[in-house]
């Protein structure tokens, strides 16, 4: 069975020490004009946790540390494409937004309070849900290869 229509994306849920959430407005796709979180696809040769930190930095200029996984969003686009996204909780190690904006992808990036998020209907419904009901992250542990027959150089267990 071909898997060319199975997508794996990642998104960074980044909350600073003041409790503000890092949100951005994309300039393309179905999220155009909506506030959402830094996100993108996992590239060949990288793990999902590497991808989320890369996307966070590329879209905002902020660096972070993965704290764990807080969820999985999964759906099917037009009955053809399996669209899957891992939601990572990321602790910011820098907080200054240094990306050059606007650019081809991102209109604006801001730290927003939970109150501002909940009162804004242009924020993604998924973010509203997370602000209201997010629990602690499932931790992420690096491990060795499960065996030669897998031919993995790096994988992760979620515990």
Describe the protein.
By secondary structure, the protein is an alpha+beta fold. Helix content is 17%, strand content 38%. It is globular. Mean pLDDT is 88; it is low at 148-159.
Secondary-structure blueprint of this entry?
Layout (H helix, E strand, L loop, with lengths): L5 E9 L6 E6 L8 E2 L2 E3 L6 H13 L3 E14 L3 E12 L13 E7 L1 H5 L6 H9 L6 E4 L11 E4 L1
Parallel strand pairs: 1-6
Antiparallel strand pairs: 1-4, 2-3, 2-7, 5-6, 8-9
Structure at a glance:
The chain is α+β, with helices and mostly antiparallel strands and 159 residues long. The protein is built from 3 helices and 9 strands; from the N terminus they run E-E-E-E-H-E-E-E-H-H-E-E.
Percent of residues in helices comes to 10-25%
Please list the strands of the largest sheet in the order they lie side by side. Answer: 4-1-6-5
What characterizes the major β-sheet? 4 strands, mixed
Distance between the termini: 30 Å
Number of strands: 9
List keywords for this structure.
single chain; 159 residues; alpha+beta; 4-stranded mixed sheet; 3-stranded antiparallel sheet; disordered C terminus
């Amino acid at each position: 069975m071909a898997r060319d229509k199975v997508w794996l994306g990642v998104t960074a849920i980044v909350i600073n020490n003041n409790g503000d959430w890092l949100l951005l407005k994309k300039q393309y796709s179905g999220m155009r004009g909506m506030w959402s979180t830094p996100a993108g696809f996992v590239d060949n040769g990288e793990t999902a946790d590497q991808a989320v930190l890369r996307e966070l930095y590329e879209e905002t200029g902020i660096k972070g540390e993965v704290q764990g996984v807080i969820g999985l969003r999964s759906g099917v686009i037009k009955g053809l494409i399996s669209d899957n996204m891992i939601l990572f909780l990321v602790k910011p190690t820098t907080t200054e937004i240094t990306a050059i904006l606007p650019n081809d992808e991102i209109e604006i990036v801001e730290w927003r309070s939970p109150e501002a998020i909940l009162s804004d209907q242009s924020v993604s419904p998924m973010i509203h849900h997370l602000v209201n009901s997010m629990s602690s992250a499932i931790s992420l542990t690096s491990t060795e290869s499960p065996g030669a027959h897998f031919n993995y150089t790096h994988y992760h267990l979620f515990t």
